[in-house]
UniProtKB/TrEMBL annotation, chain A:
Record localization: Periplasm
GO BP field: alkanesulfonate transmembrane transport
Protein known as: NitT/TauT family transport system substrate-binding protein
Family statement drawn from the similarity comment of this UniProt entry: Belongs to the bacterial solute-binding protein SsuA/TauA family.
Any Pfam family: NMT1
Signal sequence segment: 1-21
Entry keyword annotation includes Signal: yes
SMART domains in UniProt: PBPb
TrEMBL record, chain B:
Species of origin: Nonomuraea rubra
Protein name as catalogued: NitT/TauT family transport system permease protein
Domain ABC transmembrane type-1 residue range list: 57-238
Record's keyword annotation contains Transmembrane helix: yes
Membrane topology category: Multi-pass membrane protein
Tagged with keyword Cell membrane: yes
InterPro entries, per the entry: MetI-like, MetI-like_sf
Record family assignment: Belongs to the binding-protein-dependent transport system permease family.
PROSITE patterns (UniProt xref): ABC_TM1
Amino acid sequence: MTRKLRCHAIVLGVTVALTLAGCGSSGTPETSANSNGLEKTTITVGALPIPDPVSLYIANAKGFFKEEGLTVTPKIITGGAAAIPAIENGSLDISQTNYVSTFLAVSQGKKIKLVADMYQAAPNTFNIMVPKDSPIKTVADLKGKTVLVNNLKNIATLATTSQLKVAGLAETDVKFVEKPFPEMGNAIVSGQADAGWITEPFITANQSQHGFRKLADTMTGQTADLPIAGWMATEEWASKYPKTLAAFQRAIAKAQQLASSDRKEIEAMLPKYTKIDAKTASVITLGAYPSELNANRLQKVADLMLEYGYLENPIDVKSVIAAPAASG
Amino acid sequence: MTGARLLRGAIGAAGFLVVAELVIRFGVSGRLDFPAPSAILLEAVRLPADPEFMAGVGTTLTNWVFGLLIATLIAVPVGVLLGALSPLERAVRPLLEFMRPIPSVAIIPLAILLIPVDELMKISVIVYASVWPILINTLYGMHDVDPLAKESLRSFGFGPLAVLTRVSLPSAAPFVATGVRIAAGIALVLAVSAELLAGGFNGIGVFVTVAGSGNRTDLMMAATFWAGVIGVLANVLLMAGERRLFHWHRMRTGATES
């Protein structure tokens, strides 16, 4: 390269870098003009890129938050447990959480409130899967085998353990190993594990790519219709911003109703905030989207956690739920 | 870079891709759903037209540049100070030697806990990681200053400040530049790692996480490919800058073009 050309290359490079850097700052949320007397009109809400929090995106797209005078900026989080420090230090106002993480945190003295329901298991939404030619034919055959879960000591191990119990085994009869969902298929194919606790869209993907078969639906028996995920905030946040919380709750409930009554709404939204394509979205098995937090249903999760030693003391779920939204 | 060198490099890269393509398509790993290099490259070519990805690249680059800049502003003065005052250096050395090898990725969870503002948290992590190479290189640069030159200046009645600005700093500058170049690579790794571990509104790491949500290994690899390209470009750019600014240094030390 000549000297002149090299100079041009540097100038070009710097310009590109600066232009790109400029793009990043364009995403600042605008404050809503209609405040409805809310204490806070712009909130940041943490969500995983999975089907569970679809209502957040539906409520945004349909203007349900706008109607309440609320501007909601979704932020990608990496897990329910990781979201707890984020709501505690205020980098998130509200976050997606799984109920097992929440109850564990509450048992450790964290001041967290559940503010809305999100996702509930349905048949075949969380399955134990094995390769097509696997010698494992029943859950009892898992004795001594390695089972992949997305997180240890979480809903995955809890649900699997409840199935092991039915088959006469205990948690210690299998070896749980942590692995992110996208990597489970390859890990099992390459012999790193014998089975995996898998959810959508990976159930469908592993069926079509590897010919995996279902060994067991983990959401049956004790765990039938098990509540999976909800929205949480700190106790402090919930008491400091009651009107903002109520506005969020109303908009989310409306979106949950829409999601549970029309699957097409979910299918249309999934490709927009996840990389699940439209074709996959139309065939995957989805859970339920309840529009109100029900203490009795959630109590089942806490009770199971106590039964399987995830909790040392019982938790009264009512005390973890924030006061219900005023109807509006 | 000469044309012949470029050609040889291109042949090497193409050869690797062909072998990888064959292994993945027909080889032992045929049962895995690892995307072929051709599929990854195809996605990589499409990505610059994806506004979501480009917004992410913008955010990652911004955090990276700011992090590197702040690290330089911290590490260079501290390095010069420690290099100029050897008793101070001896006092601080053990602490430096203890903190330096701590894997920077391991402090990300701590940073998430302590720093509520997303960008600030990520920039802090980048700063922590990139301070060390710059600081250590600055120190080496200060040690490498020709004592004879310093003595000459002193014997002509110049004060310590003049010795610092006229001899020590110019002499240490090439080392500082090398430190910044090494730190740039580390800073990029941390910029993407912080996004992978902590999430965020957007960013290359956030894009990779979201790509995983749809089982899109090809997209994950394509985004990672661009992170690699950005790292290479930064290195080339900084190396060219070093060569222009400090060509006298290269001639003095007899270092060859690398």
